[in-house]
């Protein structure tokens, strides 16, 4: 069984998620944006073996702690898609601009593409490329537990911003309606900020993408 724990980090209260395989105790952290001590404390409390870092996209609040953590523990960085390399290259500047601790740029160990899979222990998650908020944004879908880790594509009652460099509003809407909705109304999604919701609820009530 795949398990997860969502831990809000940084002054942006970004949802970093520790995901792990019950059978093996192997774990990954999705979007280790900062507060690495807090994240590692939770990993230790749960008795997990941290094996990888997975990124939905490369904005500072999601990726700021990634380079340091990968270097410190010798972990592979998996994702996002190549379109976010310019955001990764700009992480040191982003950290200064937004008052974050110094952030390292890096090159992911593995880029991700639409239709790829990632694995932790015995658990496999599907990867969907969902551009719009950033060009290289990806989403991790765990159909075995009806969960999706969607970064900043979709929120409870809202959608991701598209006014950043290389953001695209129509692309974002297409990502939500063509890539997320087919995962099923019952699927609970873990957004990059704020509470969980379901795709079904957002299809019915979200003012930005409702009834789509």
How would you describe what is shown here?
Residues 13-193 form the Metallo-beta-lactamase domain. This is MBL fold metallo-hydrolase. One of its GO terms (molecular function) is hydrolase activity. It is a single chain. The chain has a single domain (2-205), classed as 4-Layer Sandwich (Metallo-beta-lactamase, Chain A). The strands form three sheets. Strands 6-7-8-9-12-13 form a six-stranded mixed sheet. Strands 1-2-3-4-5 form a five-stranded mixed sheet. Strands 10-11 form a two-stranded antiparallel sheet. With 212 residues, it is α+β, with helices and mostly antiparallel strands. The longest helix has 12 residues, at 169-180. It contains seven helices and 13 strands.
Task: Name the features.
single chain, 212 residues, alpha+beta, Metallo-beta-lactamase, Chain A, 6-stranded mixed beta sheet, 5-stranded mixed beta sheet, 28% strand
